[in-house]
Amino acid sequence: MWGEVWRGMALAAAALVAMRRSAHAMHIPSADGALDAIPMEPKELMSRLTLWCVLFSISAALHSAEIAITTLYPWKVKEFAEEEGEKSPFRVLNQDITRVLTTILVATTICSIYSAALFTNLAIQLFGAKGLAYATAALTTVTLFFGELMPKALGVNNAEMVARRMVPIINLMAVFLSPIGKGFSWVSKLVLTLMGFKSTHGDAVSEEELRLIVSGAKQSGGIEREEASMVESVLDLQDTKVTKVMRPRTEVVAIESNSTMASLYTIVNETMYSRIPVFEGAIDRIIGVVLSKELLDFIPDPSQLETVAVRERMEPTYFVPETMPVWNVLEEMRKRRLHMAIVVDEYGGTAGIVTLEDIIEEVVGEIYDEEDDDYTVEENYIIANGDGSFNIHGMADLEQVCTALDFPQVTEDDLRDFGTLSGYLCSQAGEIPAVEDVIMVGRYIFTITLADERRVEEVHVQLIDAANALKDGDDAAPNGSSTQGEAGGEGSDEPKVLDKIAH
Question: Among 105, 107, 356, 455, which residue carries the largest CB count within 10 Å?
């Protein structure tokens, strides 16, 4: 097949040259008095076309190899190199990828410049003054599709295959071209140094690169989604404030320092907690923590439970500011061999407590003990109804709510500032909403169905379109209600609190 193609090209070239020779022999001038072209032997034309095709093909192949090599993840290259041993083409990439990329750069530059010059010269000889315009249009089209887009698409979609086949060839070319590349590299560094720029060497793998690696491994099936989620959660610990994972002050179970061990026994028996914070006077003055295992010492003589004060058996505790990253808290707790820390606000008051279990749950999800009675409740924090609405517990995780509702109005800052739906709605309303209050955010209407003076307990969530459909079925809105326009309109990002609207 290729022989027929080359023979056809040779015949076409011979015919074209014959036509040009005839025009030249008859001295047919162009508009400016010059001949249109210079006569050329068919063999010379074919040799030049062949040389151009070779140079162009090498350049396209190197472009494909470059994008394939840079697309491969470093950990994947290292894995191939270790599995395949000394003869693996990926061993070169793993050891000295700079040498490979420098060789590609030098080779593609040489091929591109020389092939462009050759093609332009050939076009001018064949078509005269118009050849430059023809060459520019043809080279732009051919280079764009066959020299850039197609090779790079091939390299991206078949990175491993392209790299495996091209690296040995590039490594052979490096024997001749690498010294040239090193020379230019040295000159460029010298020029940058003279201009005041200094080369910086970052981490081997940055956090963003690691996230991309995890994302790529998840998409390719290299790791499970749950495993990828755990890795991403670990990376998030450095940016997550301890307030996101702590147990808030309102849920802290503590004991007064002058209380007896009998009181501690009652609390432990009811809560099954192993560590109880000890305060003096008020919960804002936590002075220590008492372990439930201290009660074991009173088994021989339970009557002493009524005579021994909790302060006599408590241990020192560790305090952390509410702005401290979770990762730093984990490091300090590990160094101090602690399982609990007290979170304090900027005024020194108690904001809450954080335990090792709270931090671990941030990575692996909820952990339930055999004695936990609330696991069935937390599993049903977000309930989808048949009509497209939701019943959501106020303490539901805000990020999980966003996932369930496809709720883009919640920003990254909101996720950092608020851990629960209750906290977010209170922030949007500017106060603690009461029962039957309505908050509109984006496409959703949040109707408070259960709340107390401290927080939102339960919310009914409905799409604005669905709510309007229900309203259209009524002859008139109930007293105290508001129209959609008064509420901010469909798609409005500004929340509104409408007092006591009946649905």
Answer: 107
